[in-house]
Amino acid sequence: MPPLRPIPSPLTLRPCQPIPNLSKRAFTLSARRPGYHDTVKNLLIGAHTRVIYQGFTGRVATGNAKDSLAYGTNIVGGVTPGKEGEHLGLPLLPNLRRAASELKPDATAVFVAAPQCGKAIEEAIEAEIPLIVSVAEHIPLHDIMRVMSILKTQSKSRLVGANAPGIIAPIGNCRIGFQPLPTFAPGHIGIVAKSGTLSYETVASITRSGLGQSLCIGMGGDIIAGTNMVDALRVFESDPNTEGIVLVGEVGGRAEEDAAEWIVEYHRRVSKPKPIAALVGGMEAPEGRIMGHAGAWRGKGERTAREKYGILQKAGVTMVDHPENFGGVMKTLLSQIGRNVYKIVGHAQAQQQRRGYHTIRRRPSPTHHQHPAQMAQQKRFLLLSPSQSSSPLQPYLSQVPGVTLSSDPAPPDSHHLGVTVSRSARSPTLITSPSTTSSERLRNFPYDWREGPSPSLIEAAIQHMQLDAAPPAARAQAAGLLKALSTMYREKEAVTLSGSVSINSQGNLALHQPSIILQFDDAAYRSCKRQEDIHSLRQKSQEVPEELEAEDHGIVFIKLQDPKANIGTLVNGAGLAMNTLDALTLHSGHATNFLDTGGKATAATVKKSFELILQDARVKVIFVNIFGGLTDGGMIAEGILLAFREVDMKNVPVVVRIRGTNEDKGQKIIAESGLSLEAFDGFAEAARRVVELANR
C-alpha cells in the first residue's frame, strides 16, 4: 500500500451529543474518484491485509485480537485515545492520525461502544483507511445515516457493518470481527449474510461438506448496512477463489430483491455463472413486529420474506429452507455445472492442512463468546399510538399554515406521504403515493441526510401524489408538510413518520390522525440518552407483560397469536430464531413464541427463557435449537439443567438440538442428565419429534 497523504484533524464531535448540522463535504484529500461503489475491491482481504484496532486496549478488543493473531491475522497495532506504547507486543498509538501514518493499515476493526462508534468510523474515513469494520450493536440509526452520507462523498473507504459479525477470509487466515473461528475452514464458497447465527450454521454446513469458505461477509441485521448483498456479489464474481455463492437474507428491506436483479443481469452477461444458493428467514414473522434485529421488520411497500424467496427463486437462485442443507446443495450445484467437486474439496482440504485448520470440535477460548455490545437487548423502536401523535407533531405542523389534524379516518380518496429510511439508498427518503389502498403505488425519493430534501425533490414527490386538480394552497401545504416532517425526522431521530392526507371542504390539507405512524429509534435514547422527551411517551402498560419481562433480562421474546400454536421455542440468535419458526411450519408445527436468548446468553438467561415460555398455557413441548457460534453449547446444556432443577417444568417435554461450539460437551451433558430430555443433531429429525410430541 503506498504511503498515505497527510491527514486532516478529526471531525470534532463529542459522543452522545445532539447531531450537528454538518455541511456536505468530501473527507478524502485525494483527486475525485468514481464513488463509494468502487470501494468494494477493499473487501478482498487476506494474508496481505494489515489490520489495526480502534479501542485496542479494551477487554473485548484485547481478547479478540489475541484469537485473531493466533489464527494468523496480520494485526500491526492499534489505537486507544491518550495511550501510547505497546499492547500485545504491538504498537499502541494515541490517535488514528498517527496510526494511519506509521502503521499504514489496510483495515481497521472498530471495537468501540455504540455511543462513540459513529465518531470512530468518521475518523477512519478521514484517515482514508480502505476497510472499516464496525461490530458494535445499538448504534443510533441517524449516526449511521450521517456516516453513510459522508462515505458516499469519497472513494477510498468501505464500511462493513455496523452491528455485523465482520468479515473473514479463511484463505489467508484473516479475521476482522468476532466470527467463531472453529466453524470456518479455507475453501471456495463465498457467503454474505444478514444474520450472525444463521451465517455460522451455514458456514458449519459448508465446512462439513468439505468445500470450505473463500470469503464470508457479515452484512449485519441493522436497517442500514455499509456493505450489502449486491456489493458482496460483485466481489464474489471477480474472486478467483470463489466457486459458489451463498446468500442468507431475512425479512425487512429489499437487499434480497436488489440481489435478485443483479443475479438476473449476471446470468445474462456471463456464459458460465457461479452457482448461487440462498435462504430468507422470517417467513412466519408477524406483521408489524421487529424480529430481534433492528432491521428485521417489513416497512410500508416492502416485500414479505416469502415474496423475496420467490423473487430470488425466479432469478435462478436455488433456495434452501434450513442452513444445515447448504453444504450438500452447493456440492450438487457445482456438479451440475460440470465442476469437479472432488478436486474442489481436495484443494480446500489441502488449504486446511497447510493453514492448521481449527476443527469444529475444538474448544475455543472464552473470548470467542464475547460480543462487543455490553448492554441488554433493546426494543430498538418506539412506536407511538395515533392518539399520542398530536403532542410531538404540533410544533412542526404549526410551521405549515392551513394544515389541520383531523380525528376522522382517512377517506377512500386520500393520499399518502411521509419520511422513512431507504435501505437501498442508505439514506432518508420521502415516501408518497396517490393512494392509501395500494402499496404498489408507493414511491421513494431518497435524499442526503446532511442536506435534507431539495425543493425540486419535494416537488417530484408531490407530483407523484397526483394533486394536479388540488387547489394551489393544498399543493403548497403538502410541500410544506413534507419539509416539516423531514425536519422532525432528523431532529427527533425518527425511523418513520407518515400518514394519510386529504383535501377538506375549505380546500386545505387535512392530516388524518388515525393513519399516523410515528416510529422512533430506541437506540438514540438507550445508547446516547438523546430524545428523552420522545421516549418518555412509551406506554409500558399497553405492552405484553412477558415481552417486558424478557427485555429486562436481555432476551427478545415475542408472543405469537397463531391459533394452532403449541410449541415453545428457545433459540440463540435472531436470524436462527426466525428460521426455526419457518422450518417448524414446513414440518406442520406451530410456535407459540419467538425467543432469542441473545449473543451473551448465560445459564441464568436460559433458565429465565424457560420461565417465560412456560407462562403460556398453550405450550405442549419446548424446542431448544442452539447453534453455538458465540454461544457455548456446554453452557446452554447447563442452563437447561438449571431450569429443570429450579423451574416448574409442568411435565412439558423438551427437545434439544445443540450444534457448533462445544456441541459434544453440550450433547453429553444432556444425555447423562437422567432427565426427560431428547437430544438430536439434525434439525429435521428434531423438528419431526417436536411436532410428534406437540400433537400427541
UniProtKB/TrEMBL annotation:
Q: Which domain of life is it from?
A: Eukaryota
Coiled coil spans: none
Instruction: Specify one Pfam family.
Output: CoA_binding
Q: Where is the CoA-binding domain?
A: 44-139
Q: GO biological process: any one?
A: tricarboxylic acid cycle
CC annotations in GO: mitochondrion; succinate-CoA ligase complex (ADP-forming)
Region (Disordered) location: 350-375
Q: Which GO terms describe its molecular function?
A: succinate-CoA ligase (ADP-forming) activity; succinate-CoA ligase (GDP-forming) activity
According to the UniProt entry, which residue ranges have a biased composition of type Basic residues? Answer: 355-371
Q: What is this protein called?
A: CoA-binding domain-containing protein
The organism encoding this protein is Elasticomyces elasticus
